[in-house]
């Protein structure tokens, strides 16, 4: 009986490995078939202001408009440059507010079995239709300190009994949506650029030194957020096999 059990376990493991290999091959072949893409970005209209830690339990988060920073325009411009070496990138029209209004990330494990909410928006709200694929870049979430969610572009403060820490973050995720079937071919959240700081967050972030006067008006803060995006986007697209090596 033990031998039979081992055989069943080995057979199951082999089936899982074959299934994973087939899925990877299908995804790779679908990516290789893409010739034309459109880019949708909807992460940069507002900045969250979050506080967490032992002395800030229950404090409410705030937000500030940063639409004047043009972060989504920056993302589209950089993504066009990066993807243009491999694909024909075509400008598309879309309602940014519609994409930004979806706050529940379909990348998180709890949502893996749900229908991706961005598929229908690409089908109904993006023009022109008929491109091979659409690259959709939207806000992602992460946990800060005692479990508070932080999302998208933000400035976060974490307090302990001994010290205060602060960081800026630009959390986003990238989807490749088939332009014919509207299936999600690939999706990935941008990974941390540096995970060695005192505060760690699951996405591009960096420490702040407390010298920013105001999150909505500081040019230094805007430049720091833009730097997180411009350094992380090539890494994310490369991890998704959209640029760099095939």
Automatic annotation (TrEMBL):
Residues 1-22 form the signal peptide. Keywords: Signal. The keyword Signal applies. This is Uncharacterized protein. It comes from Bradyrhizobium shewense.
């Amino acid at each position: 009986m033990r031998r039979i059990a081992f055989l069943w376990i080995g057979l199951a493991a082999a089936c899982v490995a074959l299934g994973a290999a087939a899925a990877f091959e299908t995804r790779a072949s679908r990516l290789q078939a893409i010739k034309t893409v459109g880019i949708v970005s909807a992460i940069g209209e507002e900045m969250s202001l979050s506080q967490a830690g032992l002395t800030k339990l229950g404090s409410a988060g705030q937000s500030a408009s940063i639409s004047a920073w043009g972060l989504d325009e920056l993302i589209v411009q950089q993504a066009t440059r990066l993807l243009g070496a491999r694909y024909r990138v075509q400008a598309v029209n879309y309602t940014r507010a519609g994409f930004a209004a979806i706050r529940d990330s379909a990348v998180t494990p709890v949502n893996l079995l749900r229908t991706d909410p961005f598929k229908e928006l690409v089908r109904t709200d993006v023009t022109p239709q008929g491109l091979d694929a659409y690259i959709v870049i939207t806000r992602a979430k992460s946990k800060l300190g005692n479990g508070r969610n932080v999302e998208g572009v933000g400035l976060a403060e974490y307090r302990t009994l001994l010290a205060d820490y602060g960081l800026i973050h630009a959390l986003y995720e990238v989807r490749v949506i088939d332009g014919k079937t509207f299936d999600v071919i690939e999706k990935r959240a941008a990974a941390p650029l540096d995970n060695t700081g005192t505060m760690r967050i699951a996405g591009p972030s960096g420490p702040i030194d407390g010298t920013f006067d105001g999150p909505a008006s500081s040019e230094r803060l805007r430049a720091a957020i833009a730097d997180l995006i411009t350094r992380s986007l090539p890494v994310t697209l490369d991890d998704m096999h959209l640029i760099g090596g095939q």
